[in-house]
Structure formats: structure tokens, C-alpha cells
Amino acid sequence: MSQEPSADHQAIEEALAGYALHALDEVEAVRIEALLGAHLPECASCRELLDRFQAVTGDLALAASPSRPPRLLGVRLRRDLRNHRAPIWTRAAAVAVVVAMVAGLGTWTAHLSHRVNEAEQRQVRTTEVLATVSHAQSHVVTLSAERTAQAVPVSLAAAYIPGRPRLYLFGSMPNPSGDRVYQVWLVKGGQFASVGTFLPERGVVLIRIEVDARRYDGLLITEEPARGSTSPSDRHVVRASL
Amino acid sequence: MEGDHREDRRDVELHQRLVMGDRGAFEELYARYGPAAFGLALRVTGQEQLAQDVVHDSFLALWRAPEAYDPARGTFRSFFLSLAHHRAVDTVRREERLRRRSLKVNPGPAVGEDVAEGVVQEAWLESRRAQVLTALEQLPAEQRTVLEMAYFGGYTQARIAEELGIPLGTVKTRTLAAMRKLNRLLAESEG
Fold this sequence. Notes:
The structure holds two protein chains of two kinds. The relative contact order of chain A is 0.11. The termini of chain A are far apart. In chain A, strands 5-4-7-8-1-2-3-6 form an eight-stranded antiparallel β-sheet, with helices on one face. In chain A, a hairpin with a 6-residue loop joins β2 and β3 (167-172). In chain A, α1 (7-20) crosses α2 (26-39), α1 packs parallel to α3 and α5 (91-106) runs antiparallel to α6. Helix content of chain A is 35%, strand content 22%. Chain A is α+β, with helices and mostly antiparallel strands. Chain B has two domains: 1-108 and 117-122, Rna Polymerase Sigma Factor, Chain: A; 138-191, Winged helix-like DNA-binding domain superfamily/Winged helix DNA-binding domain (Arc Repressor Mutant, subunit A, Orthogonal Bundle). Chain B has eight helices and no strands. In chain B, α5 packs across α8. Chain B starts with a helix and ends with a helix. The interface between A and B is large, with 51 and 78 residues.
């Protein structure tokens, strides 16, 4: 980082400090996340600075006088632990995965709270997907890998609430080979309808699709040329039955 | 310092066991960070019940989603205490009407304070705490004020500007200066 950052860079660093301190109001947070989302992927020094600021905020906690938690708090916590661990891709685990994704990207894709493919919507999107997978009636569906030769394992799920026109895809997967992209297809009666293309952000996927999942039989993700395709290639990556 | 690094490595080991669902690892992490988290939550929320809820929810979140911590991005200590801090701030903003600053059970400022309750905390954390307090003391007063209002008061930067009657830009500038200086001082003290 230069000793005398530009005015724009100064604004970015001020945003990093406010973000790390959790001192932004909701409106400002959305604006800042969009700002950081555009800047951090291109700026290693700011990514490093955000990590360092977050370390500072962790240390600042120690400035408060430590205080032994009441014994009953431990009792309550241990009781609740028994009810809060679930196998992978149950609702609770889906929440956990989303939280993990959020934390993983948070330090440097700026969409701190919610790292979706659209930077400016990241926080909103993660809140949405968390609300969806936490909903008592939500369906969480594992997407099964179609190709086993991938060097990095694919771990994706889809979540939706029946009757609501939103389907979320989330999890992790490697970038496609070469200049290719991933393309999402919805399947109905043997017909494929393209939803769009995407690239993972540092291995993380968090996508919202504006459809009622109940109207479709399944979902397929393929690898396609950079501009996408009009029909799916044979490079299937994952699929799921809805 | 080597002792701190040893403890950081111990945290990583415990975290790895936690990912596998090891209750013993959870208990040890609770013993290590419960007092710090509870002290922080008391300081931010000013209410014991709210503070208990913050600590409860923070540890439960850790249990449910241990994968949220990535050792490549920093120490477990920073990760977990930041998590507790965010929850405390969210709680106090949500429950602001319940604030009773005059009845705070864990009042600030921490700077220069010598706290008897420190005995409930492990020595290596007390050592780090002393470094943090020393670093805070070295901040100019106007920087420390905005930092503490944000961090311990749970105020947004816009609210701080209102409360202090200064431009928002000034709050941001002071905050950045404070964070830069703390980063430098704490990195130096950590060795």
C-alpha cells in the first residue's frame, strides 16, 4: 500500500475500517459492500488490510473486563448443543454451510455478509438464503456430482420454500476449465430452459433464481463456452431432482 | 510471542476436533473464551441477560457451523471474539430501548483499568489483554472516542457523528487512523 493513498483508496480503507468494526448502518453497509465488492478482488493490499483490521477487532474484545459466565449459562448451552447438530444438507447443516460461506468470503470479497455472485446484493442475498434454509417448510436438495474427475469436490445444494418463486443454489465448486463458464438449466418434461451462467467466487456459489421450483422436474449445471449455450452440452457437472 | 502462538496452535487443534463434533473440544474452547466473550457482551449490551444470550448464541453458532472459521485468515481467537462482538452489537441495536447505561454491569472505559476479575481468564489472554489496553492508551483521545463508541457502544458511524456533532467524514477518518495505529501497535507487541 502506498504511503499516501489516493482519495478513492482512502475511501476504500475507511470503508474497510468501518466494516471491520461492524459500525455501518444497513443502508451504508449495502453501499460499502458494493464498493468493496468491486475493489477487493483486484487489490491484494486491501484484502490484507481487511484481514488485519478484523484481527484488531478480535483483539479489541479483550479490552473489556473478562467475566466468568454464570454456571447456568453453561448448563443451558450444553442442553442446547444436543439439539443443534444435524447431518449434512439437513436444514441446520445448510444454514451452517451458508454461514461458513459467508465467513469464508467475508474477509475479502466485501460482500461481507453474503457473498453472492452479484456483489451489491451480497448481504441481502445471504440473509435471504439463510431465511430460506432456516424456514420450517423449506426443501434443501443436494446436487449430485455428475463428473467424478474434478480435482476439487463439488458440494452444492438447492433450497426453496414451496410456493415461493425463489430458488437458491449455494455451496462450493471449482472454477470450470479454461475460459468456460457454468450454466444452470431447469428441466421440465425433458426440456431444458437456461437460467443463466455463472462463475464461482473463490470457490463459493450463492445464486438466486426467480422461479417456483415446484414447476420443474430437476436442475442441471453444465460447463459451457464463455458466452453460454442454447442447449446443454454433455459436460454435465451436477444435477438434482426437484 | 511464542506463548501466544502456541495457544493459537492449540486453538486450531481444538477447532479441528470441533469440526468432527468433539464435545470435549467445545468445552475447552468455552473455558478459554467464555470469560472474554461474556465480558465483552456485558460491556456492549450493558445487561446480563442479553450478554448471556449473546454468549449462548455465539457458542451455539460455533458448534453448529465450525467450518465458518478459516485458519488461513487469522487466529481462532479473533474469529470467535469478532463473532461475539457482532452478535452483541446486533443485539444492542435491536434492543436499544432496553439499554440502561446508568446500570451498566461492566462499564468502560477499559483503558488503564486493572481488573480483579482478570483471574478468571487464562494468563496468556491476560497478557494479550494488557497489550491491547496499552495500545488503546496510545491512541489520541478523539480517535479512541470514536473507536470505543463504535466497538463497545455499538453505535454506527452515522450515529457517532450525530452524538459528537462532527461530520461523518471526520468519524471515518478518525476510525481509520485508529485502526491503522492499533494494527501497527498490536502487530509489534505480538512479535
